[in-house]
Specification:
By secondary structure, this protein is mostly helical. It has one domain. Helix content is 74%, strand content 0%. It has three helices and no strands. The longest helix has 29 residues.
Length: 70
């Protein structure tokens, strides 16, 4: 298990205002945030690869995405 300490009073106040003491909802929101960050990183890498002429067939891309995010 990973525990995260928040040393930012404004952030802590905002989190408590939105989630109260519901740590499950807060954890779910954090997970969604991390997934969005991972998707953005993957898209950025893909764009760089395309710009470098390292494209792959669309079918392979879709299959890879499905296996990664489903």
């Amino acid at each position: 298990m990973l525990n995260i300490q928040i040393n930012n009073p404004d952030l802590e106040r905002s989190l408590k205002q939105v989630y109260g003491n519901n740590t499950e909802s807060m954890a779910q929101a954090f997970l969604q945030f991390l997934q969005q960050q991972e998707i953005q990183r993957d898209i950025s890498i893909s764009i760089r690869q395309l710009d470098a002429g390292e494209g792959i067939p669309l079918g392979n891309v879709i299959q890879d995405i499905r296996s990664k995010y489903e």
